[in-house]
Amino acid sequence: xxxxxxxxxxxxxxxxxxVCRSTDPRDRRTRPSILIEIRDHGGRSESAPLAAxxxxxxxxxxxxxxxxxxxNDVRRVxxxxxxxxxxxxxxxxxxxxxxxxMQRSSIPIMAAPHTxxxxxxxxxxxxxxxxxxxxxxxxxxxxxxxxxFTLGGLEFVPIPLMHGPTPVLGFRVGAFAYLTDCNRIxxxxxxxxxxxxxxxxxxxxxxxxxxxxxxDQALEVVARLRxxxxxxxxxxxxxxxxxxxxxxPAGVELAYDGQVLEIxx
Length: 265
Ligand SMILES: [Zn+2]
Ligand SMILES: [Zn+2]
Ligand SMILES: [Zn+2]
Fold this sequence. Notes:
The protein is of the alpha/beta class. Helix content is about 20%, strand content about 20%. It has helices spanning about 50, 65-70, 85-90, 95-105, 115-120, 125, 215-225, 240-245, and strands at about 35, 55-60, 80, 105-110, 140-145, 150, 155-165, 165-175, 175-180, 200, 230-235, 250-255.
């Protein structure tokens, strides 16, 4: 879990609330992103040697990507998936230049077609660069997501979600699913989540919000999916890590920056 905070991060600039002043490191939350490291998973990689070379899959390039890469010693990114094009999920994209340089290659980015279109507009300097640009621009190879795809020998299943009026994508890999930035799971997406055992799910705060699940709404999703373990993410400053975890049901916790979830299939 590279970042588990809401769009403004926690602490909020200029806020004196108990969570923003907390000395618990789990109350310091950067903008939402995860890194998936694909370890040896036996057998399945032989048929697709190129795809099997993918080991580190970044989900979103958060505003805090540079700080997250340094904090977690991220040295390689083989592919980047985007959930949607909101600022907190894309504005670290310029930091990808460092991975281009270390890996001496461009990096594939994968997103829904409307998300790619929005990124092309927002980042015209990357996708339609001027002839000479000091320092260079990120070298990215865009791929439109139209259904499940394979990376590192594993199948990634895009999960359509609603984030207020905005369609976004969650991603499922095996029995793991990452569903950030959503306040509704469309009926047709529920079957795609059958059998998920480790779930990372948006839960902004206790009060309802127009584009994010509240804690109670997220718990309703947990009650329906019944994963073994659920970690809430995209957390605002209303939720203290320790106090919130203490009142959540068994198997449900708040995620925190730097947390490592091991998934065994
Ligand atoms: Zn967000
Ligand atoms: Zn605060
Ligand atoms: Zn968003």
